[in-house]
Request: fold
Amino acid sequence: MTEPTRCVDLNADLGESFGAWRLGDDDALLSIVTSANIACGFHAGDPLTIRRACAGAVARGVAIGAQVSYRDLPGFGRREMTVPPEELEAEILYQIAALDGVARAAGGRVSYVKPHGALYNRAARDPEQAAAIAAAVVSYDPGLPLLTLPGSATEAAAAEVRLRAVTEAFADRGYADDGSLVPRGQPGALVTDPAAVAARAVAMVTDGVVESVSGHLVEVSPRSVCVHGDTPGAVQIAAAVRAGLARAGVTLTPFA
Reply:
């Protein structure tokens, strides 16, 4: 029997339905992933949806992450905003505290923090907004890891305040040559074929590379691999990624 070559986490976005609007299949994804980035109500997620997501994660032993966002329900948190650092820090703190309260009521807790959408991408290149996120996490619990892209301003901001940064890679998103994500709406931004996404995930974890949209190999060093809960066929994609990693001898386990 071949020994596993390494351990990696598999994360996905959950709790993103709102009222009568249903997005994703939380129950199915919770049976596949090892970490759940649960919406905190700013980009998606109503109280009942969030509570159910937390309870489902606790029941399945899935780590709970606070997926913090700009205050942007109409745009699903995917519209870039310039928010003053003090205000952004307070809004991030508010979201972490709210989700942690719901998670604790369900018998769990928030184990890490991950920015969502436009905030994630803006903070990756904007030291000021990255610092606001890191400051909010430290003020709530300096033991909480921050999930982000390797080499990003967010990773640097975490290091400045001695916060643990955990690097991730996106199996279902296109990469530019510089290691950033191709903006949504541009060609190659999403990869939706389950076999292709699984192959990318295996290459990311075992070889440390991903092919960019222009065909270049980009170095990645993921401790966690992300698949998006709102990507078409998300459940099939996540299942294919999990199966592909298992075949490659990779052990799936939460990083937090």
